[in-house]
Amino acid sequence: MPKIVFLPHEELCPEGDVVEVEAGVTVLDAALKQGIDIEHACEKSCACTTCHIVVREGFDSLEEPDELEEDMLDKAWGLEPESRLSCQAIVEDKDLVVEIPRYTINQVSERH
Ligand code: FES
Question: For domain 3-99, is the CATH number 3.10.20.30?
């Protein structure tokens, strides 16, 4: 079974975590099941960017994001070439290393 390594995130998983998952689940669902509470303000319908992650390893094993996801990602805080929306990123048969960005767009707007 593929593994997802979550890199440490100050609030969500300070020590980092490793999860074994079935291929076919989304990265978000895998994280939530593990108790890593990645925000998902639109309830996984690709209409916010709060579930933004950066896939540090294994990015190319994922299906390409569709246009809607790309459009949403443009609004994400801290966008990188390997950014994805975790509610849309489906784990294939390769291991992934995932970084959860420090902020979401909701937190950033609260600070300004
Ligand atoms: S939960 Fe809103 S886009 Fe993923």
Answer: yes
